[in-house]
Amino acid sequence: MSDINIKITDREGVTHDVVAPTDMSMNLMEIIRSYELAEEGTIGVCGGMAMCASCQVYVINDPGLEPMGDEEDAMLAEAFHVKDNSRLGCQLHMVNEMEGLEVEIAPYP
């Protein structure tokens, strides 16, 4: 089993040190849900299909994320509260290279 350490700031401004597995094919949205860091029904509304932006996060420390794909870019172009460092949590799959990732969960529309 391989785990990485990441920091997630919730919508109330509280930062959580989180251990995320890299061997379970989980994405950041699923990690946020499993740690209950966002109110039920306000994250991953579309089920992780890059169709709702409810899992939008602001990347504070990027240890080397994969580039944004076309679907993610298109969804963020239509989302609220978007910043230059916005990403969709459902599109960020937990891999060893994400050790030290720091994000803040964006406000829910």
From TrEMBL:
GO terms for molecular function: 2 iron, 2 sulfur cluster binding; electron transfer activity; metal ion binding. One of its GO terms (biological process) is P450-containing electron transport chain. Gene3D superfamilies: 3.10.20.30. SUPFAM superfamilies: 2Fe-2S ferredoxin-like. Signal peptide: none annotated. InterPro entries: 2Fe-2S_ferredoxin-like_sf, Adrenodoxin-like, Beta-grasp_dom_sf. Keywords: 2Fe-2S, Iron, Iron-sulfur, Metal-binding. The keyword Iron-sulfur applies. PANTHER family: FERREDOXIN/ADRENODOXIN (PTHR23426), TRANSFER PROTEIN, PUTATIVE-RELATED (PTHR23426:SF63). This is Ferredoxin. It comes from Chryseobacterium artocarpi. The lineage of its organism: Bacteria, Pseudomonadati, Bacteroidota, Flavobacteriia, Flavobacteriales.
